[in-house]
Amino acid sequence: MKAEILKMLRESDDYVSGQQICEKFGVSRTAVWKAINQLKEDGYEVEAVRNRGYHMIDSPDVITLEELTSQIDTVWAGKLVYYYDETDSTNIRAKRLGEEGAPHGTLAVADQQNAGRGRRGRGWESPKGCSIYMSILLRPEIPPVKAPMLTLVMALSAAEGLKESTGLDAGIKWPNDIVLNGKKLVGILTEMSTEIDYINHVVIGVGINVNMTDLPEEIKGKATSLRLEMGQVVKRSPIIAAVMRNFEKNYSLFLETQNLEKMQEKYNSLLVNREKEVRILGGKEEYNAYALGVNKEGELLVRREDGTTEAVYAGEVSVRGIYGYV
Ligand code: BTN
């Protein structure tokens, strides 16, 4: 009921009368009053005016279950949320939920991770109360070889969600980092459980640096947070809701063709590597090339110095800008 009341207050520009709430939930005035008081204890600023009702003036930066379920307005992506004050890693949680039969779209969110994971066996700094750590569980009916494209679908959705909720023009560093002013803002880690020709489930974990002000020494020069870039505290729940909304939209575009054809243009328009010299690392050889954009399989098309064009596969190489992180 708390989540529903929050939603009613958030969606109404005017006062919501106690009577309206009582009727909606079939509860007493005292029960409503108690729920409102709990919201106030949680940090919501709710004004109560005699004969008019309740009005929400401000909400705190919390990502509790009530806050998230009152914000997320999708049909399936993040519709079922598991929230943890502290956990090892939301990717591990979502994977476990997947093994236990949780539905497609289930979202695991934590306020803090004590074993946050990054790509290539690295860790992911996950301090309490200041960033977004979330993982969505998917059960796509597609061949396993196509699953890596979902990471790019999420990268696009995170960039679009950030634009919608904060107004910032973040770019994508192929294949799946989100960068702002040349520094990393979002990391994405996709893990899957498959049989030879069948996907049991896919987990896409997203870490967004939101209100961190003290970045660890090792990443200081190449990472940033929304707060550092915007100079103010940023609320996390509207960002989570906006990323879920965009992911739901882009995922259905992906399923129509089982590739990125329908979002290739948008992805390329946000690609920071596009039309830049890049250095291709991690494959059989290291070389410089000129990045042209992604194809519909999500591979990066590059023109080599000898004029030949080739497609670089996300799974086998990473790209560094030759002048620094981007
Ligand atoms: C990267 O190395 O860029 C990927 C980082 C992914 C971090 C997120 S935070 C939520 C989810 N849980 C994890 O343990 N990792 C991902």
Furnish the topology, listing elements before pairings.
Blueprint: H1 2-11, H2 18-25, H3 29-41, E1 45-49, E2 53-58, H4 65-71, E3 81-84, H5 90-99, E4 107-110, E5 132-138, H6 149-166, E6 171-173, E7 177-180, E8 183-194, E9 199-208, H7 226-230, H8 237-257, H9 264-270, E10 277-281, E11 287-294, E12 300-304, E13 309-312, E14 318-321
Parallel strand pairs: 3-4
Antiparallel strand pairs: 1-2, 4-5, 5-9, 6-7, 7-8, 8-9, 10-11, 10-14, 11-12, 12-13
Helix pairs in contact: 1-4, 2-3, 6-8
The structure holds biotin.
Residues 89-91, 113, 116-119, 122, 124, 133-135, 177, 187-189, 205-207 line the site of biotin (BTN).
The distinct ligands, each listed once, are: biotin
**End-to-end C-alpha gap:** 46 Å
Number of strands: 14
- Number of separate helices: 9
User: What structural class do you assign from the helix and strand content?
Assistant: alpha+beta
How would the global form be characterised?
elongated
Rg result = 21 Å
- Main sheet properties: 7 strands, mixed
Lateral arrangement of strands in the main beta sheet:
3-4-5-9-8-7-6
In helices, the fraction of residues equals: 25-40%
Low-confidence stretches: none
Proportion of β residues? 15-25%
SSE pattern, N- to C-terminal: HHHEEHEHEEHEEEEHHHEEEEE
What integer is the average pLDDT? Answer: 94
